[in-house]
């Protein structure tokens, strides 16, 4: 008998010191407990391999192969090294392991800059022995176009390029920007500064487009001109900080959206130099990949990066088991963490 069949609700309840009723409600997504308790129940159930009947039915309905199918080995291509990739990798790996499969990362060397060199490197690193390939969100677009042509199952953890036949899943940053704008508008803010590069990656461009669309939707027509915001290349840190300080020090803006992960802490630095108090003098919304260790109280939309990795694993197995099914483009939308950095502006 498999471990999954041996584990019961009572096993989980005993391990956590909870009642069976509480464990059952947690696994079915019902209210009546703290989020910490729900998270503990879900994580232990996954660790022990326990599934509810509803979860089993859902996997069957999605046409995802069970763990007793042939074990498969997948690759995830990574460009650069960051906590952002760790979150994606963890989500994919955990879900694949639950279903009896494995994942190995392929870290692309920094010196590769053309298609033939990329193909040679992939061949030399065993990619073509993998059963499928996961493509992360910050792969350069020239490289992504080469990889999307490979004759193997692929799942893109990104917004897909136009006219591309590929399964994809992404945490919906466009929705997150609209959420943030609505939160600021409800708090009385009309002069909102957008902070974030808008040219290098597809996700960056879509963030700005969503900001401009939200501004128009809310009647804030003067905000849609990118020249009025901090949209330059963040790699030139000195010039970028000079521009940011000039905008924040102008007195024009009552609120700001730090739309690219990693920029919110620099907003705090610039505000500190200008002696601007957050949130009393500057309301701030961040777009971080996860809670910032120094600014946990920051208001932010929750970006479902790990969850996107889990869904990507399911899409991959579904594609392999059902190659003729239509391609899917999945967007995951999270809640908004109110935090403490949005202050209501007096009329």
From TrEMBL:
Signal peptide: none
HTH lacI-type domain: residues covered: 7-61
Species in which this protein is naturally found: Paenibacillus soyae
Transcription in keyword set: yes
Keywords, alphabetical: DNA-binding, Transcription, Transcription regulation
InterPro entries attached to this UniProt entry: HTH_LacI (IPR000843), LacI/GalR-like_sensor (IPR046335), Lambda_DNA-bd_dom_sf (IPR010982), Peripla_BP_I (IPR028082)
Gene Ontology molecular-function annotations: DNA-binding transcription factor activity; transcription cis-regulatory region binding
Keyword Transcription: yes
Name of the protein: LacI family transcriptional regulator
